[in-house]
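S1.2 Input.
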Amino acid sequence: MSEQIRRVAVWSGRLRFTHWVIAGATLVLIATGWLVAETPSVADAAADIHYMGASVLLFGLAVRLFLGFFGTGAERFEHMLPGASEWTAVRGSVLFYLSFGKAPRPNWFAHNPLWKPLYLLLLLALGASALTGWLMTDVPVVGRLYLPTVHGWLAGFIGVVTLAHVYSVVLQDTKGQSADISAMLNGHRYFSVDRDTLPKPEIPQVSIRLDDISRD
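S1.3 Output.
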């Protein structure tokens, strides 16, 4: 079977920008949050950076929210829910990750079907973390919830999902051919296409009559 590799635009520039803004702010918040809790000697300086990172995160989440409702293509939230035809790819992705890339890697166009609901859950967790972080300085207890503890739980969940996301993307990039990591930089993924399924140009039929040859 002959194959052809096609380079296809998948991620828009504004979606890639939002992704890296949220990713960078999240990493800064995780690091500075740990410093605030575990290293009293630099807690004040880390807290200042933590608050700046939170502002950047809120900006990224606001843009992502706008794209989710008013964007196009893969930017919209409706494309982040697995369709009925994608559950096979969901099961295939689980096997692919658990086998460390030894099982066949399923194909998808934009968002990995397994990660679609996890992305939405991660965005909700980031929003809730920002809200609890903002409230807990003045109102540490809401009902029976101690907000600093809830904030810590959310931070732990976000950290685990972030590590899982990095693992999955690296595994996909090293075991596959779609260039998932560079796709979030240049917006393009690579797809293998069977040449036999590609449309072929029609070759015009040329006929010459013997009478035309004899006239020359």
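S1.4 Remarks. The chain has seven helices and four strands.
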